């Protein structure tokens, strides 16, 4: 047996050893099939419209203007008193420029017959821009 053959046999034996040693430990890990059900959805919280929109600049501006006017004596956000609730008005009209202008005109001139027989008095001292800001606030209050 010559030296070359001896060497190659040793190499083969060595590589076989490596294979047999390294091939262990591949025992299939048991798949834990404990499927946890998805968490139950949170119960839908009833938040007030005030809570929902309180951080909106349109809301903040509207509240400020209304406080300086008589609107709160006849209107509430979610309850009809003398006039319709703002939520009802918001549900009736899209908040478009045309509607804002039209409703601001009614607030200034007064109106009757849309919501019933009780008239809304005129607000002739109101600036058009302020009336529009208040109407934008009213129409923001959608559920
Ligand atoms: C004296 C009570 C009273 C006051 C004060 C009052 N409103 Fe009204 N408002 C009403 C009544 C009543 C109606 C319903 C009129 C109708 O049926 O046409 C109404 C209707 C409205 C509407 C809906 C109009 C439409 O055509 O659908 C808006 C918007 C509105 N008011 C905003 C205001 C704002 C803003 C102020 C404050 C500047 C104000 N109101 C002050 C009684 C009032």
TrEMBL record:
Domain of life: Bacteria
InterPro entries registered for this protein in UniProt: Cyt_c-like_dom, Cyt_c-like_dom_sf, Cyt_c_ID
Keyword Metal-binding listed: yes
Keyword Cytoplasm: no
Keyword list, A-Z: Electron transport, Heme, Iron, Metal-binding, Signal, Transport
Region annotation Disordered: where it falls in the sequence: 22-49
Compositional bias annotation for Low complexity: 26-35
Domain Cytochrome c: 57-142
Source species: Cyclobacterium jeungdonense
Listed name of the protein: C-type cytochrome
Range of residues in the leader sequence: 1-18
């Amino acid at each position: 047996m010559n030296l070359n053959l001896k060497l190659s046999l040793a190499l083969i034996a060595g590589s076989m050893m490596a294979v047999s040693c390294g091939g262990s430990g591949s025992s299939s890990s048991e798949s834990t099939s404990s499927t946890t059900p998805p968490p139950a959805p949170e119960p839908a919280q009833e938040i007030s419209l005030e809570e929902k929109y309180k951080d909106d600049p349109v809301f903040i501006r509207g509240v400020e203007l209304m406080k300086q006017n008589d609107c709160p004596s006849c209107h509430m956000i979610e309850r009809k008193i003398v006039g319709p609730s703002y939520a009802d008005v918001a549900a009736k009209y899209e908040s478009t420029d045309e509607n804002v202008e039209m409703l601001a005109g009614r607030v200034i001139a007064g109106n009757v017959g849309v919501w019933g027989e009780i008239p809304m008095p005129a607000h002739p001292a109101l600036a058009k821009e302020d009336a529009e800001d208040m109407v934008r606030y009213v129409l923001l209050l959608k559920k």
